[in-house]
Design goal:
By secondary structure, this protein is of the alpha+beta class. Helix content is 19%, strand content 23%. It contains six helices and 14 strands. It has a five-stranded mixed beta sheet, covered by helices on one side. Strands 13-10-9-8-14 form a five-stranded antiparallel beta sheet, with no helix packed on it. It has a two-stranded antiparallel sheet with strand order 1-7. A hairpin with a 5-residue loop joins strand 4 and strand 5. The longest helix has 12 residues. It is flat and about 70 Å long. Keywords: Chaperone, Cytoplasm. It is found in: Cytoplasm. This is Tubulin folding cofactor B.
């Protein structure tokens, strides 16, 4: 007998989930971050896209997670993992704000329950050994019409590079962006950019100062430009996935592709020249 979950890859499951659920209808603040939550004692349970605010203290985050996991705040140790599941920070100081650790959408907060007498210890809250899983034989599944397997096989015959993500994007009328596989991507565009240059970032005509030029671990291949914006319109403080590339205040930093930036005489808004009639 074959477990039905073997017919779909993890990426297919996530893509289907995103397609079915669609974009969130809830208003989202700039400081909001969507993070997954896992638990040391809950091996089969996780919480996806929990809304947190970067201005929350670690203590406030723990208090919110208590209602989801049942672990007491005092028995909770938090670790932050990147998109690859690697631990990049331990949230040890309850008074530090979450944004200090540069969380991003899709990152995971892993709760370690250090209470040996916790109700979730030994995994007894998740004892599913008596639950019968739905199973179907290969023969019965292959005999069915209009299955996902047959649909996928047909699509791959038509296009060997086909993926479910591409199919969903196509049906939604969205542009499918190809993954960057060139480690020197946009190296030519980056040649004319130097640290200290004033710049303007597009879209949005956001102004700032170039603070870094080069490659960034954890981001797609190729060259990136680190920018310190004149206003708090960025996404970080110069730290990307636990590594600091430049220094700036929270929400003043950003990483952009060289093609999305121009360098030149772009003074801060307060430094604009005014005519005599506009001077006060």
């Amino acid at each position: 007998m074959t477990d039905l979950k073997n017919f779909l890859s993890q990426s297919d499951v996530q893509a289907l989930k995103a397609y079915v659920q669609g974009p969130s209808s809830q208003a989202r603040a700039d400081s909001t971050v969507l993070m997954h939550v896992t638990h040391s004692n809950l091996k089969n349970t996780s919480f996806f896209e929990l809304r947190l605010d970067r201005h929350m203290t670690v203590l406030s985050v723990k208090e919110k997670l208590k209602s989801h996991t049942g672990t007491a705040v005092g028995a909770m140790l938090l670790q932050m993992k990147d998109l690859n599941g690697q631990v990049i920070a331990t949230l040890a100081d309850d008074n530090t704000v979450l944004g200090f650790y540069s969380p991003q959408d899709g990152f995971t907060l892993h709760v370690i329950d250090i209470d040996p007498n916790s109700s979730s210890a030994d995994g007894w809250l998740e004892d599913v050994s008596k639950v019968q899983k739905y199973e179907i034989s290969e023969e019965d599944y292959n005999a069915r019409e209009n299955t996902y397997r047959k649909f996928k096989e047909q699509k791959l015959k038509e296009d060997p590079t086909w993926t479910l993500q591409k199919e969903i994007a196509k049906r939604s009328g969205k542009e499918v962006k190809e993954a960057v596989n060139d480690p020197e991507f946009q190296a030519e565009e980056a040649k004319g950019v130097e640290v200290g240059n004033r710049c303007e970032v597009y879209p949005g005509s956001k102004r700032g100062e170039v603070m870094y030029v080069g490659k960034v671990e954890g981001l797609p291949m190729g060259y990136w430009i680190g920018v310190k914006y004149d206003e708090p319109i960025g996404k970080n403080n110069g730290t990307i996935k636990g590594k600091q590339y430049f220094e700036c205040a929270p929400k003043y930093g950003g990483m952009v592709r060289p093609s999305n930036l121009k360098v030149g005489d772009f003074p801060p808004a307060d430094d604009f020249d005014f005519s005599d009639e506009e001077e006060i």
